[in-house]
Fold these 2 entries.
Entry 1:
Amino acid sequence: FGPWDPHNFVFAALSALGRRRPFEAGGDVVSPTYVPDLAHVTLDLLIDGATGLWHLANPGEISWAALAQ
């Protein structure tokens, strides 16, 4: 998710809650990645000349419901 994308879960949750409208979110556990964080670590890998396959994700996990809260 990112601040420039109006088509993601966080934007939808903030929009609904900001308008005081109901918003339903599941309890399944996810590990959302913030796009600016992903871009920064990708640029660091490029600058360092890293090669190979990398798994890039933010640490931890959270449910969709907790993320909306």
Note: The mean pLDDT is 89.
Entry 2:
Amino acid sequence: MIWTPEKIKQLRKGFGERQEDFCHRVGVTLAALRHWEQGLGEPSGSAQLLLTRLHEDLAEGKVKQPA
């Protein structure tokens, strides 16, 4: 999957998390996440794999979505 800024935002919102919380889930700094969402940088290979896994878990219902 190609992780565009919009897809990253959608994934974060799928978890119902603010940037401040989602960056901890992904294991990156808040600044890095903000750069990704603004298109000023992109996730490393390992971060892309993690984002893909989180996306799959969310899609498969392994993670509770916010009410």
Note: Residues 45-59 form the longest helix (15 residues).
